[in-house]
Amino acid sequence: MSTTNEDERIVDKRAASRMHEEEQDDELRAAEHGGETPAADPALTTEDSALEDALAKADTYYKNWQRSAADFINYKRRVEQERGETARFASAALVINLLPVYDDLERAVATVDAHLAGLNWVQGVVAIQRKFANLLQAMDVREISASGEQFDPALHEAVAKQPGDEGKILHVVQKGYRFGDKVIRPAMVIVGEGSAGGEGSQ
User: Fold this and answer.
1) What separation in angstroms does the CA of 79 have from each of 72, 73, 93, 152?
2) Contact 96, 185 (CB under 8 A)
């Protein structure tokens, strides 16, 4: 029993001595740094710095990803708009090429002799003209108002002037049309030049 107590005392003395030495080492370090707490472990500082760098990189990558996602959405929207505009241009080109045929049909129907109006082939031409008009309407093609209107250079094209109310459209030479909100063919018109102008031209 006495041997065991002596061993415990020796271990306690060694532990106390070790603690005393560590305290002295801490005091020496503090004295070397002017009484301040010793600097942090360089290994820990390096790990903190690496963590900060990793977080900064992650934030940069996230922001770049957000920008790329926004750019891709804008690109898709732009491609869809361009595709829609291309389809509209193709439709507008088709309508422009069909309008002269429609003009001929309208003239044919308008100039049919009253004695021929009841004939089957005349009724067939009239039916074709009506179907053509319905097709243009379904394609959002609208006639531009012209006769009796004030001349508008955005909608009308003056091909001649005649005595009459100044700036007023007296006669429509060729009908004009809109495709949606765009003018695909301005109306060709004869415009009044005013009574004074009319007297001077005689």
Assistant:
1) 10, 10, 21, 35
2) yes
